[in-house]
Write a structure and sequence with these properties.
The protein is built from four helices and five strands, in the order E-E-E-H-H-E-E-H-H. By secondary structure, the chain is an alpha+beta fold.
């Protein structure tokens, strides 16, 4: 996934995992992180409920939390920020301030990212479907009634 990717901006390296999903390496001076982001904002820019769309996808992964964490074998921080993104973050000790250990840090980070990618990939189609369903439910609230009319019509 990262074969033809270069660092941009603030030195993070990102690669798409499909619409609304992103894997990212993000170094800092004292630690470096392998991250998986959920952000459907660019996919549904007209939506006022991106946070709910992201949450629908995040809930699919959260239901599989035990399996994901077992496969990664590294502590995962499950983040829900106040704005809209959802993410899984694995941090390793050492950052760009630790030049003498940079090779070991890279090796550990690559291993963590590969296991994070392997752990979430089986659930991405379902998470994407949940996000799309969330959009449909918000755009067409009457779709939840199989008769297509107001639920009070039959009373």
């Amino acid at each position: 996934r990262f074969d033809n990717v270069e660092a941009k901006g603030r030195n993070e390296i990102s690669a798409s995992a499909g619409s609304g999903f992103l894997f990212r390496y993000q170094p800092s001076q004292g630690s470096t992180s392998a991250m998986f982001y959920i952000d459907f904002g660019p996919v549904y820019p007209e939506s006022e409920n991106v946070q709910d769309i992201n949450q629908a996808a995040f809930e699919v992964l959260r239901r599989e939390r035990e399996a994901i964490e077992e496969k990664v074998e590294h502590e995962i921080e499950w983040k829900e920020d106040d704005f809209r993104r959802r993410s899984l973050v694995c941090s390793v000790d050492g950052g760009y301030g630790d030049e003498d250990s940079w090779t070991e840090i890279h090796d550990e980070l690559a291993t963590v990212m590969a296991s994070l990618e392997d752990a979430v990939n089986p659930y991405l189609d379902e998470a994407s479907d949940a996000a799309r369903q969330s959009v449909r439910n918000r755009d067409n609230p009457d779709d939840s009634n199989p008769d297509g009319g107001d639920s009070t019509d039959n009373q």
